[in-house]
Amino acid sequence: MPVISAPHAFNESQLYVDLRSILGHSLYLKCEGFNFAGSIKLKAANEMVESAEREGVLKPDSILVESSSGNLGVALSTIAASKGYQFLCVTDSRCNLSTRLLMEALGSEVHVISELDANAGFLGARIDYVRALCASDDRYVWLSQYTNPGNWKAHYRTTAPEIASYFPGLDVLFVGAGTTGTLMGCARYFRTWHRPVRIVAVDSVGSVAFGGTPGRRMIPGLGMSMRPPLLDESFVDEVIRVEEADTIRTCHRLARRGFVFGGSTGTVVSGAMDWLGRQDAPGITAVAIAPDLGERYLDTIYQTNWLQDLYGENILDPEQVAVGQSGAGPAPDPPEPPDTPPRRRSR
Ligand SMILES: Cc1ncc(COP(=O)(O)O)c(C=O)c1O
User: Fold this and answer.
1) For 297-335, what is each residue's pLDDT tens digit?
2) Stretch 13-26: mean pLDDT, rounded?
């Protein structure tokens, strides 16, 4: 029975959903939304705050400031409230209302940018605002999730070994890419420990994280309007891009089977299902990471008017959001948790 006295001291790390009976391919979805910040970003926030404390950058009168589309902002709000720091989150008009209200409930200040930077989109405008704040007052401390190595190290230390210990025979790992902290931490872990795991990055169409043409993106979390400074593509085996309409349909398919996940989970699962559908390898062991749950998206991804205004009347056409048995047989038995730390395997 876990008993805690700080919100960041608890993080469910052992929960997977097997999607075979819902979507037709065996895919184990690692659920990262069960903690007091409600998302995987608690791990990165914790690591970055602790290393700033160790390095003496954070002092009792410091004001934390960060650019976030929402989840890191909630995670930093949670930690700041627990540790007694002030926190200012710089977000933009795509941030969900409930996410903004949650940060305010935790005692944070939220600044919403509504003007796009002509060249660098919302992200460029958010970063400019943070830079100007830091230049105006040296009490501001910007952890900078886009460049802070603590962002990927958090996943190297936690997410990746958690997966490796349950899936010693893992073949492929699907990871959504935003700042690429999760992607780089996991990819570096499997490469360092010589595990022959194919690392597939999942991005949204319209993101330029891995190159390509910029386009409209309305679902926060995944995708970037610049190349992520943390990204080292030599660790990534493959990149797949998913249309937001497919993200939304996948979210609704899962919701109609009782699993209400956030938008980026829809993106990762949609990309993974396409990828698995193209393989001729029935016994493949595949894991995908679900960064958060769906309650923060009730007024967007799960709201018909919002969907139809942005994606057209037919976005939730029943044929496109088909529910029901996919014809796949029962899932293979999940792997037994090992008693020992992950074994090393040569490539
Ligand atoms: C819901 C959600 N999914 C995915 C990501 C991407 O994670 P990362 O920044 O580690 O690439 C984020 C990042 O904020 C997120 O909030």
Assistant:
1) 999 999 999 999 999 999 998 877 875 444 444 445 556
2) 95
Tell me if 228 CB under 6 Å of ligand 1: no
C-alpha 178 to ligand 1 mean position (Å):
5
Helices (H), the chain: 20-23, 41-54, 71-83, 97-105, 121-136, 149-157, 159-166, 181-192, 244-255, 263-277, 304-311
Q: Is the CB of 264 under 6 A from ligand 1?
A: yes
Residue range 261-278: mean pLDDT, rounded: 97
C-alpha distances (whole Å) from 146 to each of 42, 132, 152 are 15, 17, 10
Q: pLDDT for 97-128, tens place per residue?
A: 899 999 999 999 999 998 776 666 788 889 99
Distance 291 CA to ligand 1 centre (A): 6
Task: Provide the token pair at 322.
Answer: 């088909």
- Domains of the chain and any CATH numbers: 7-35+152-315 (3.40.50.1100), 40-142 (3.40.50.1100)
CA dist., res. 144 & res. 130, Å (int)? 9
Q: What is the per-residue pLDDT for 333?
A: 53
SS3 state at 173: strand
Distance 293 CA to ligand 1 centre (A): 12
Please indicate whether residue 42, judged by its CB atom, sits closer than 6 Å to ligand 1. Answer: no
Q: Is 205 in the pocket of ligand 1 (CB under 6 A)?
A: no
Mean pLDDT score across all residues of the chain: 91
Task: Name the residue with the closest Cα to ligand 1, atom 3.
Answer: 221
